[in-house]
Amino acid sequence: MSTAASGQQYTSTTPMEIGSITKTFTGQLLADAIARGEVKASDPLSTHLPGLAGTPAGGATLEEVASHRSGIPSFQDMGRFLLHSQILGLNPFTESIDQLIDSARTIKLGQCGKFDYSNLGVSLLSEALTRAAGADSWTSYVTERLFTPLGLEHTTLTTGQTDIPNGAIHGVLANGHRGQSLSGPGSNPAGAGVWSTPEDMTRYAQAILSDTVPGGDNAREPRWPGMMDETPLPGKKIGYTWYTDVVDGHTIIGHGGITMEYMTHLAINKKSGTAVMVYTDQSGDMTASALATALLTDGQKISTAHMPISVKMLPLIVILGGFTILALVMGLYTAARAASASSRMAVACRVAALLACLMAAAASGPWTYMPTWILAVVALPGMYGIVRSITLWSELPTLPRRRAWLGWMQVGLTIIFIAICLVVTWPKA
């Protein structure tokens, strides 16, 4: 029994989000469907998803999608995803599979044949497999073909917050707030809203080690380079969603997952017959893949498992630092104008806005890519300005002596700004 960052107790039977490890289910089922003769690796998506006929996405083959080489972007709308997940702290995976298919009709593809990790692509692939098998839904398909044969009785797919299994443990963000659980029927195959237990994931790993998992080794065969933005991933080669890396002479296959509550990683060394499943219940904790690899390589290469920063992470970094930069600008302005404030109202507005901005900056963490001491440095000019304004408080009029309406406009704008900061800061769950 262990204690989570949230203070909850968890055991081998506690449900936790596994995130994108779910994609390996799809990879195994693709290999299984090929072996059954239901699909061909060279089939375009449109063969099984007629709604994509005549579209660039519809021309991507099943194996291109399974290896993230189709050019299909990770999200149908990156701006919306970042707004919901990183700024508002809300679940960004709410669309149904029909909505994802509809949006995929108009998306612009990247370079075909180049690795470009795609959540949307895996969701479309899973639906193609579901329809090729004549199944009612992805849930029934993956249950019949994978969960039931392997005895994964406590691995569940959720479509909303009310579906989260009893006893589930929730992770926390680095800022101390509870993370928002993911859910969404369309993105279940990509890892949104999938919960499992350490015991179930152990059974899954054992099935892989014993070659009893549907699809067998064909899914994990390292056929193509696993590269992102010219930077090697923690998997130099990729098969059907599975990454393969050679670390200090050890061949490691695996996949990680990132949710708004968890970082996870499943790593397997078939030669030694060992597997490691790591859960970290803090979304900003980047140690899951490093620890999993280290445990399979005698701790020799822990640093090699860290996910590199790609070009696609830059928007996220900008969002994390946006409030910090804004707080610095506001602090410098407050310090520069401290001695020339027109009224107490102006001082109060500046101080309130600055404090709200600093609060939002602190809460917009997890500060994975920025050292936390930056926030203290950023706060210094503003703190000077606040202290200086306080010393002049008694000398200032309550309202501006001229154009008082400008003072009231400043109050209104300040209230709006504080409301925005509160949306960022307020715990989402």
Structure description:
This protein is of the alpha+beta class. It has two domains: 2-308, Beta-lactamase (3-Layer(aba) Sandwich); 313-425, no CATH class. Helices cover 41% and strands 12% of the residues. It has helices spanning 23-36, 45-48, 62-66, 78-87, 97-104, 119-132, 138-150, 198-209, 288-296, 314-336, 344-363, 373-392, 404-425, and strands spanning 2-3, 9-10, 16-17, 156-157, 194-196, 224-228, 231-238, 243-247, 250-258, 263-269, 274-280. A six-stranded antiparallel beta sheet has the order 6-7-8-9-10-11, with helices on both faces. Strands 3-5-4 form a three-stranded antiparallel beta sheet. Strands 1-2 form a two-stranded antiparallel ribbon. A hairpin with a 4-residue loop joins strand 10 and strand 11. Helix 1 runs parallel beside helix 6 (119-132), helix 5 packs across helix 6 (119-132) and helix 11 packs antiparallel against helix 12 (373-392). The longest helix has 23 residues, at 314-336. The protein is elongated and about 85 Å long. It starts with a strand and ends with a helix. Residues 229-233 and 302-313 have low confidence and may be disordered.
Biggest sheet: strand arrangement: 6-7-8-9-10-11
Q: Write down the secondary-structure element order.
A: EEEHHHHHHHEEHEEEEEEHHHHH
CATH architecture of the largest domain: 3-Layer(aba) Sandwich
CATH fold call of the largest domain: Beta-lactamase
Q: Note the total helix count.
A: 13
Helices, strands, pairings?
Elements: E1 2-3, E2 9-10, E3 16-17, H1 23-36, H2 45-48, H3 62-66, H4 78-87, H5 97-104, H6 119-132, H7 138-150, E4 156-157, E5 194-196, H8 198-209, E6 224-228, E7 231-238, E8 243-247, E9 250-258, E10 263-269, E11 274-280, H9 288-296, H10 314-336, H11 344-363, H12 373-392, H13 404-425
Antiparallel strand pairs: 1-2, 3-5, 4-5, 6-7, 7-8, 8-9, 9-10, 10-11
Helix pairs in contact: 1-6, 5-6, 10-11, 10-12, 11-12, 11-13
